[in-house]
Amino acid sequence: MENANWDAIIVQIIVLTASIITWKLVKDFYTRRFHKLVAHLIAIATASFMLISTMTLFVPRNYQRGATAEFELSLSSVIIVIGMVGLLYILFKFILVDRSSK
To answer: What is the CA radius of gyration of the chain?
Structure first.
């Protein structure tokens, strides 16, 4: 039972970190183009979608309320989260900035 608690803590840290990084990347990108409030709203919406999508990666396939663990920490899920955040980083820091400056 104690191992499940540590898994939940690790999953929550991964999910929140991915959402915060997504929020920061999107906010910085759109602040150059729109008003800060509009950029912040777009960033919140995008980070919320990241939060939901990363949470669903860690839900067990055969989840039953009260019978199984709420989170399943797996290497493939962690790699997918790192890949999604890495792709967003490359997209917002390099590719889209280069196109908008031309």
So the answer is: 16
pLDDT at residue number 70: 72
Q: Check: CB of residue 59 under 8 Å from CB of residue 8.
A: no
Residue pLDDT, tens place only, 13-53: 999 999 999 999 999 888 888 888 999 999 999 999 999 99
Residue whose C-alpha is closest to residue 16's, from 68, 97, 81, 67: 81
Task: Return the pLDDT at 64.
Answer: 66
What is the identity of the amino acid at 26?
V
- How many Cβ atoms are within 10 Å of 32's Cβ, its own excluded? 10
Q: Which residues contact 40 (CB under 8 A, 6 or more apart)?
A: 27
Its pTM stands at 0.80
Q: Kindly report the three-state secondary structure assignment for every residue of 56-78.
A: HHCCCCCCCCCCCCCCCCCHHHH
**CB neighbours of 21 closer than 8 A, spacing ≥ 6?**
85, 88, 89
